[in-house]
């Protein structure tokens, strides 16, 4: 047991060797260990027991070897005898596992998928067996677990497995503690910290703090004022987390505000006007450095300031009002203020000192009415100031001035200013002489005419070709209506169109209906066919309406045009023939046959065109694939799509279709060389570039991204070299040692992004450098030689140099001034011999230096020093220097007293032996027993001795009987000091000199000795001395099946595209089996699978590799991964096996187009929904993964109206409103939406947006004819003809038409919302001469909206009252001789009619004539045929 105290008992050596007690001491027993270390000692007292000489540390002695065995020899002398022995040092658990670093750093992208494995540095445990490292654990966490893997050498290493995807934004780093546990009891542990840095990817779009920001800004804010700061945060780091801001909205908004791209500050760019825009809806987009975006909405409310004065708008004004009528409406006006709130509220007032008042009506309408009856005779004119003041700060006001004339009514009887008048008239005056004037006060009115209407109806259909010149003939109306030409003018014939635009003109001279302008069918009707314009022909006396229509015939004046002149179509190269791709259709404003009739495409070998009609009757072109595409041959090309209409001659329009062929992984990488050969000197520094392999892949994108790795290489290669995954550079990471490994053969695999792979072989030849000094190994040595013996063998030694070539060649020599020489033998063996007889008396000791020098650069050498003693032989008689010597000795000396030494060459010293002066002379002799002193050297024949033994045999197992094989007697082996010397200088064998048997000195492990080399042969020599003889021998170590096949990785990951064709093979890493021959790896099997089978492939070096063969196509969507068990079997009996898990990741290709949840989406939207509102979210799914499963949404074949009104979010499919809806303009939108995945496949759905009407349009009144003056006494006279309409729909478009109840007028409906305003009965001008009629049209929507139209109707007078005089007779005094026509006086005539109020004027010489002076004009009107009263004229004397 290691660490046992010094002196601990190990064994009873005498007993084990079968010797007597004390025999070991008698025979000078020694315990000899390699390296001259004395781990054991013999008991100094008994010499029989074997004890520990020191504490043994197993780890120091044997490092990590599983069994620690220290071989040693027990050497006995007298006679010489060797015993081979071994000491096994058993391990104790005195070392804890220890990691090479206290902290490991892993950088892992947050995009890494679960299941990814990360190898970790393994811990070291110097203990062995069950005390060694057994397992690893990791601290509890939700993301990782640890696997304990076993290498081929039995060492265990950890792998960290990702269980749950990382998210840098949640946790940017993790700290785990990995613990290594050994198998001791109790176990020891070692720990290391794993710091995991989560690398950021751009997986977070910017997010605004609020989805909706609201801000308020006064309308008078100066330019550059800060409105608000929006802020978005991106959880990513670096450039991925840098956010820039931009506005997305209409140009008006862009011109009004600006945003700082870096800070998000939004400032005023242009003057704000609350009266134009009360609020702005802005979309703000934040974009990060990786292109991801986030959006928010901002509503900026403009705050009103009181910067607008009130406005007064006159709707009607009656500047002349009759006196004596109370409550007369003078004016109707409305007031408004463009501001809002208190700034918009107004107060309306007039002066207090006038007989008028203001009455509020509806919606800021006011009427100015008389406060009571006015009296023209008191005041005939009023100046009225209407003041409108708002309630804002400061208060603003507007004034409007009116001048109102009070018109006279006949409310005063005529009166003469005098009771009598005297007029002087010269005699003989001419008849009708004006002799004077007297005035009477009265009023008059002009009578009207009587109208009657006859409602009629007719129907006419007319046709005109568009773009016809103005004045072109359409129809002759009299002929078509059966009327006379003169009737057109007499009956006031007119043409009224529904939209009140004068498209046609009536020529009253000819009766022809002519075009009033050039008519553009496309502008009038758009794509609607036929294009009809509806109009009415109106006639009076009697009233008739003829309904008519005008059809505008199309001409081919427009060419087909594509909205996009350049179309891009992305098609994956493995798309099946016959696949159809719908294209954007062209637009032709013409209709009918002049519209688009056909599509063509330029000749090409891949596509033809096909036309298809969708549900709404639109014809679309479709591109049909005729021939498979190949990205590697042609990445893109262009086609010309032509749309042709049916005109004569036809017109056409073209668009370019750019076909982009999308690559699939249909090409495996290809190395530029199948075999790379290179050289590298040993001892090269780590980091040296050994070679760079390069593979190209004809695919593109991720499919062409090649990564490099070693394939099926040994652990030695993995620890010595590393390969750059991206560049293919093979870098040296460990020490190269030519003496250990002379070349490396490694397989390199290139894998593309789609999982296809290729392999090449790299041969690295290691170049030897002279880094090993020569070695000298003494086989036998005699430090004492007898003088006088020529060519005596002193030493037998062997030299070797582990280098090669010149570096391994050696020169061996000794110094020249010594009587010795070196004699070469076999296989670098040398014998050191005396050159001649030596004379001890001349020189008794020699120091010999054996020098071995190699021939490398620089030259290295080894020296070995020997000291040789020359032993004496009795070849000289003793001689005294003198014939006699005299020594004086005192008496009574003690015995053995030294009494002196004679000078001179006296060989001994004199002692007094007995104490009485007796001298004794002693001599010392050394006797050396030698064998044959001859110089002959024997060598075995050329044929070697061949032996064989199975590996793992026990120590001491019999190999051969050397004595018999060499033809020697047993005693010859001992006498000739027989030795067994192995080439590697290890003690694999030992020779039992007692039996002559060659025995195993240790268990032989074939795999440790020879690795995979077969046959495994140990070369050794049998050395005999006296005479010196060498026998070459070899030991064949036979393999036993003691190793199972093992896979380097317990899990093999293979990525295979689902588009991979059947029959494709995938070479996998082979298993390792350290056994050889039939016991080595022989076969592979795989667990049953419907997709794969296994095939065996043999490489050039005899290794067999498993190949996975695809039998049936894979489908990522059906089965994204498969797990198979690969089994390797050897040829032993019974066979051993090893397994590994084959994890097959089925890589997705873009073989699934997006699919919408519905083919048709329908949504209803109120027309007043705010801009920016979300209408609906369309959703499609794609069964593919990754980029192929990412869907973008776009409008497809969308009209300009749709593009202006809606937008769709590319990523979410949310459809938003970008422009205000108007039910009256468009009631529904049919939108085609296309979902396109990352590989270019697409699908379409339809979205029907129905716009719901709200009551946002008040009714409209269109007057066709109005008669403002109507005669009295005419019942059911037509006053006005008008039509009403409301652009809303349903109840919102239904209308009620009415007038005031207290008026003698009624409304009569005709057809199609036409009404006539007629008198309910005969009117009497004398009762009421004027009517103010308000026509009110109210719809039935919510809220109800109404429109009013005011008419003023004058009742004209007819002669239905006879005039009367106020007196039966009048007396007028007339001077004589008055001039003719002298005015002699005036008398009033009483009449109810203004035009018949007159004054009676008497003119001399004439019959009485009544003349009246109009009150208003003062004009003299002659009233004829009146019945005069009796005038009595008196001539007045002069």
What does the secondary structure layout of this molecule look like, with pairings?
Layout: E1 9-12, H1 13-17, H2 23-26, E2 30-33, E3 40-42, E4 49-52, H3 58-62, E5 68-76, E6 81-89, E7 103-109, E8 117-119, E9 133-138, E10 144-150, E11 156-162, E12 173-182, E13 189-199, E14 207-208, E15 212-218, E16 226-229, E17 232-233, E18 243-248, H4 251-256, E19 257-259, E20 265-268, E21 279-288, E22 293-303, E23 311-317, E24 320-322, E25 329-336, E26 346-349, E27 356-360, E28 365-370, E29 381-390, E30 397-407, E31 459-465, E32 473-476, H5 477-481, H6 485-490, E33 494-497, E34 504-506, E35 512-515, H7 521-525, E36 531-539, E37 544-553, E38 561-562, E39 566-572, E40 580-582, E41 586-587, E42 596-601, E43 607-613, E44 619-625, E45 636-645, E46 652-662, E47 670-671, E48 675-681, E49 689-692, E50 695-696, E51 707-711, H8 715-720, E52 721-723, E53 729-732, E54 743-751, E55 757-767, E56 775-781, E57 784-786, E58 793-800, E59 810-814, E60 820-824, E61 829-834, E62 845-854, E63 861-871, E64 898-900, E65 910-912, E66 919-920, E67 937-939, E68 945-950, E69 958-961, H9 962-966, H10 970-975, E70 979-982, ...
Parallel strand pairs: 7-13, 15-22, 24-30, 31-37, 39-46, 48-55, 57-63, 67-74, 68-74, 75-81, 83-90, 92-98, 100-105
Antiparallel strand pairs: 1-4, 2-5, 3-4, 5-6, 8-11, 9-12, 10-11, 12-13, 14-17, 16-20, 18-21, 19-20, 21-22, 23-25, 25-28, 26-29, 27-28, 29-30, 32-35, 33-36, 34-35, 36-37, 38-41, 40-44, 42-45, 43-44, 45-46, 47-50, 49-53, 51-54, 52-53, 54-55, 56-58, 58-61, 59-62, 60-61, 62-63, 64-65, 65-66, 69-72, ...
GO molecular function, one term: calcium ion binding
Keywords: Calcium, Cell adhesion, Glycoprotein, Membrane, Repeat, Signal, Transmembrane, Transmembrane helix
Main location: membrane
